[in-house]
Amino acid sequence: MGAVKTTTRWRAVPWLVLGLWVAVMVLVSPFAAKLGDVQRDRAVDYLPNSADSTQVAKIQERLPGGETTEMVVVYHRDGGLTGADQETAARQIQQIAGEHTLVAEPVGVPSRDGTTLMYPVASNEPGLDEDARDKLVNDVRSVATGGDGLRVEVGGEAGLATDAGEVYNSLDGPLLYTTVAVVAILLIIIYRSPFLWLVPLAVAGIADFLSMGVAYGLNQWFGTSVTGQSSGIMTILVFGAGTDYALLLVSRYREELRRVERPYDAMVRALRGCGPAVLASSGTVAAGLLCLLAADLNSSRGMGPLGTVGVLCALIAMLTLLPALLVLLGRRVFWPLVPRHGVEPKARRSLFAAMGSSAGRRPLTVLASGAVLLGALALGTLNLPGDLKQEDSFTDKPDAVAALQTLGAAFPEQGTRPITVITPTDGADAALAEVRGTDGVENAERGRSGDGWTELTVLAAAPPQSDGETRTIEDLRDRLDGSYVGGPSAEQIDLKDTNARDQTVVVPLVLISVLLILVALLRSLVAPLLLVAAVVAVWGASLGIGGLVFGPLFGFDGTDPGLGLLSFVFLVALGVDYGIFLMHRMRQESLNGAEPEAAALIALRTTGGVIASAGLVLAATFAVLTSMPMVQLVELGFVIAVGVLLDTFLVRTYLVTSASVALRRAVWWPGPLSRAPEAAPPTEEEPEPVAAATR
């Protein structure tokens, strides 16, 4: 009777799970397709509501004509502009003014050396519609053309926003395809099967589609911000974390198929064996990411829920859909290395057994050497380039950046990017006088008024995003009470300041939340502290390696202000994942009676291969970001990929193992495993010395 029930479950449950997932995909499909529609990548979309720059943008929307789309059309000839060049420029600008409604008639501003002529162009036509803004910019670019040595570039705030939007919109396809290709290649190598790799990869793709639908729902119901960066990271997490969970499950399932005849029963045992560790690891990642909700920066705060959605969708898919598909496909999915019931694989000398033995022989030496190495690498953070400027954010120079660089070279004596001051209308004249009297201000003019506010357009004497312009913006904010100072350069200042604030708040929250979860899971205080210290050391070393290569090797001129916080959150949350797999197995071996040193080496030998495979896959998925055309994505992907590899092959293999061997039972303090077991009393059949020797 029991066999009949098992057969019925074997046939019914997997099909039921599969049918449920089909229904879920049908329901989610309309929402997943809309995620790109709610993605926003303007600088003010990243900033908190309290920032001056955000307030300026919001008030500008309420002024007559709404938000202004500001561009700069730049005409340049290396040997100096000719009369024909100037006529061409005037004719093209007149055509632009005739085809579009502009705020004011553009007036050309020549450079002192006669090589450059810039025309500021502003229009209220697009309003808040980003598609209309992009169309306007592209229309202007189609009219403003050069040739025969005359170079024409369209930049300004709107030009930069359009170019950045095109880059982010182009990421979805290449990011997904490259991630899928990288994961597929690694799974084929790991599984050595022409079929098996397709199953977890297909499940990860379904989980990614589900996460897109859920992310769209969060945006609609709770206003969660969605940026190109956060949606890209969500995809990376789905494939990276999901494949990690699949590797653990498939490895355990393969073991159980050798012990159990029916695939259904083998899968049940596999889920019972590795399920708790997978749940704990995903819970740790989710807890770490949700700490980003305490961030002030909209982009970071939005990345927390989106990253959590990615991890949880991957978890649900890998613990339900993947088992159902594997059971339905049976043992043949492992071909040609099909696990046979009752047949154990040939014993092979494990690389991780050899590595563990070397760590076990001289644990203190290994631990000290590893700590010195990580510390030395962390010194590379002193070589990190300064803050990343907006024009340096692209790996390939778009038209707007070229325009900005041309203006910077042609007008070194003045600013070319306006600073916007929003002041109460009843004190606008006094504010204008105060602005004009501020050191570093080249020019200031009164603009639109409405809804009790007046707009002042200010030009600094110093170039954009220079130390001089930064001092001017800060002076304006100090001197103008009740006013807001914004604009592109002010937005970059607010981004930097907000990131610094968020780091002081979020980092302690991540450490505390992860530590509490580890204490509850491992029933110890020392082991969790060891794991947390290890991942923090990995984070410092990874940033240090970034400092050694970003400038000298990659040629980057700056570091994204959010790199430290985001890399910390991901490396701590994801790095602790592998620590859970290792220490959880170590604890199980200790509970089964193994001595501390033996438990550590057994745990490394049994989990090392799976952790190494998972680490390679996760590092490779984040490394995909280094092929993207945005510097901040390249930097983030590089640091996390390097950190995962350090954690997998150095810290987890050598340092945590050697520390566990050196600490022996103290690693489980103050839990019961930290106390030596009481000696059993001697029996009449076996004298005490013999009993001791046997033990």
Tell me what you see in this structure.
- The protein is 64% helix and 7% strand.
- With 695 residues, it is of the alpha+beta class.
- The strands form two sheets. Strands 2-3-1-4 form a four-stranded antiparallel sheet.
- Helix 1 packs across helix 7 (198-222), helix 5 packs across helix 6 (156-191) and helix 12 (363-378) packs across helix 17 (526-549).
- Residues 679-695 have low confidence and may be disordered.
Characteristics:
single chain; 695 residues; alpha+beta; four-stranded antiparallel β-sheet; 21 helices; disordered C terminus
Outline the fold blueprint.
Elements: H1 2-32, H2 43-46, H3 52-62, E1 69-76, H4 83-99, E2 109-110, E3 116-123, H5 130-143, E4 151-155, H6 156-191, H7 198-222, H8 228-259, H9 263-290, H10 298-329, H11 351-361, H12 363-378, H13 399-410, E5 419-424, H14 428-436, E6 441-450, E7 453-460, H15 467-479, E8 484-486, H16 488-522, H17 526-549, H18 563-591, H19 596-623, H20 631-663, H21 688-694
Antiparallel strand pairs: 1-3, 1-4, 2-3, 5-7, 5-8, 6-7
Mean of all residue-level pLDDT scores: 84
Strand order of the largest sheet: 2-3-1-4
Shape: elongated
Helix and strand composition category:
alpha+beta
Strands, count: 8
Task: Report the biggest beta sheet as strand number plus sense, adding barrel if it closes.
Answer: 4 strands, antiparallel
Tally of helical runs: 21
Order of helices and strands: HHHEHEEHEHHHHHHHHEHEEHEHHHHHH
Low-confidence spans? 679-695
Helical proportion?
Answer: 55-70%
What Rg do the Cα atoms give? 30 Å
Q: Beta-strand level of the residues, as a percent range? A: 5-15%
